[in-house]
Amino acid sequence: MKKNKIKDAFILFFRINERNSNIKREIIGGLLTFICMCYILPVNATILSSMGMNQNGVFAITAIVASISTIMMGLLANYPIVLSSGMGLNAYLAYTICGQIFNDSYRWQKSLIVLTFSGLLFFIFSITPLRQKILKSISNDIKSIISACLGIFLCFVALKNSGIIVSDNGTFLKFGQLIKEINNNGVLIIDPTSLISLFGIILIISIAFLKIKNFSLKNLSIPITILILTILSIICAYSNLNIYGKTLSDGSYNNGLINFKDSSIWLPSGIKDVVFFGYLNNQSIPFSNLLVETLKEPRTYIAIFGLFIVNIFDTTSTLFSVTSEININNDTTEILNLKRAMFADSFGCLISGPLGTSSVTTLAESTIGVSYGARTGLSSIITGLLILACVFLYPIFNYITASCITAPILFFVGLTIFNNSFQKINFKDIILSFSFSISIIFTLLTYSITKGVGLGLIFYTIMMLINSRKKELNITTTIITILFLINLLLEEILTHLK
Fold this sequence. Notes:
Layout: H1 2-13, H2 23-37, H3 40-49, H4 55-76, E1 83-85, H5 89-101, H6 107-126, H7 130-137, H8 140-162, E2 165-168, E3 172-175, E4 179-182, E5 188-190, H9 192-209, E6 211-212, E7 215-216, H10 221-238, E8 246-247, E9 253-254, H11 287-296, H12 298-326, H13 338-355, E10 360-362, H14 366-372, H15 377-389, H16 394-398, H17 403-422, H18 430-446, H19 449-466, H20 475-497
Antiparallel strand pairs: 1-10, 2-3, 4-5, 6-7, 8-9
Helix pairs in contact: 2-14, 2-15, 3-4, 4-13, 4-15, 5-6, 5-12, 6-12, 6-13, 8-17, 8-18, 8-19, 9-10, 9-17, 10-17, 12-20, 18-19, 19-20
């Protein structure tokens, strides 16, 4: 009897019957979503560790923030939506803000300060009607161009990190050497990282298009690829094959595969090194001094603005996309509980910086549970609890943080984002077509999403004015273009001031 009362309470609170679902479907939907999104935890840890952050700590904090945000989404908005670090936002934080804007000994701490202020700005922006109004006023073509730039940038990062493409003095870039050398005995010495990464890219795309008895494996392509590449990496790591590698400063050997000498324990480790900017673990400079020093620098505000802009488009566009897949509308065709959903994801952004991870966003993987039939927040709560459990299971996930495993996943995610956005662009409009091309080209050549999108929007606005199409330019697009122009000019001025 008590069991039935609890069941009825769940059904009533989450309105499960009203949305033509059931508890079993919600639980399975939450589980499937978790299986397909859990790769983000180690991948995000790998990306942010390139900033100098503790990889174990980032993993744990990412899981904690994702869990809190996802459960909040389920309770407040009653959506089967999962929130976690965005594959695009983390790249922008690591490679643009930390890698290009800040280059001193406290670069990652300063980057988190920027992230915190950007998150605060985004939170204030989200609890006002501005976020909803602005996103509705921007054309879908412009949104798609921005998303496409994020996708192609992720692909480029994956190819670069895996060694599939490398720098070259003559051509700037070239295809990496899969075979490093042939020794005196005629034995091939190969680079397992780039070789397995290349195989992984082919594998994950092949699985995504594979159908078994009319059942598509696309939604399971990521976990299947991770499993296969992990097994392959273990075989290579334990084999007697002559593989390329290097001796690290501590005397250990790194072959780009799985690190079996990891000392992680079955409890959250490294948190003290990242939480609250790493100042729970004594630093050589007081936090107040570093905060003042950071806020005195003009580049700080450039970085805050740039991250804020990227955050707006990435988080909101994905949220709208996922909610449209759920297809839960009221009589006015407005999305139900949208304000609550925006509060949940912006709150996640607010706490990300202080706790020590990149901003959360609505995950496209949420549609996996939706496709199974999940329609309520119970599904997201199930996913959130499973994510929280991962905090204590890092050693398991650590086996899939090797670059040869994460690179194909990152490439596939980026390719998916790019492909979905590409299909939505109206290429019959020559101005849009050229704006898209400029954005993509400069995103890759400048290694910056902001510069690529900014230059594309500037070209778009100028061409619309020249061709007497100013009536098609709304005030929001114009203002954002001007802001992008100001941002680019400030970055150039800052470069010459260094």
